[in-house]
Design goal:
single chain, 124 residues, mainly alpha, Arc Repressor Mutant, subunit A, three-stranded antiparallel sheet, 62% helix
């Protein structure tokens, strides 16, 4: 038995069968976890802006669990696409969802619902 397993389960005696299955379970769980994709990140930003009338970048980064740099880069992509507006209000850059951004977000949600309906939600 590897040393790290011994430390994890000190005080708990496992059978040989349990010890042989445990590494397989860890490996399966790691394969099931997906990294959040680019589209998921953009949708999270749009959702945050939909529920807050306008937001500063630190609020967006905190809500979406992104670094400040990643949140800024993603917001710039959304601005270029015309889905988000940036404006300055009292020396703070604020971001706001456009009407086109609301439409895009609704279409994305409808598409996600379709994927779930046909059990294809793992496709993306």
């Amino acid at each position: 038995m590897p040393q790290n397993y011994k430390r994890l389960f000190s005080g708990y005696s496992m059978t040989r069968q349990e010890l042989s299955i445990y590494p397989q379970l860890i490996e399966q769980n790691q394969h099931n976890k997906k990294k959040r994709g680019q589209l998921d990140q953009l949708i999270q930003i749009l959702e945050h802006l939909q529920y807050s009338s306008d937001a500063i970048i630190s609020s967006i980064a905190r809500f979406t669990n992104m670094s400040h740099c990643s949140a800024t880069r993603n917001c710039e992509k959304l601005i270029k696409a015309g889905l988000v507006l940036r404006y300055d209000a009292s020396n703070n850059r604020r971001y706001k969802l456009t009407n086109e951004g609301i439409l895009f977000l609704n279409n994305c949600k409808n598409f996600q619902d379709l994927l779930c309906k046909y059990q294809l939600s793992d496709a993306l």
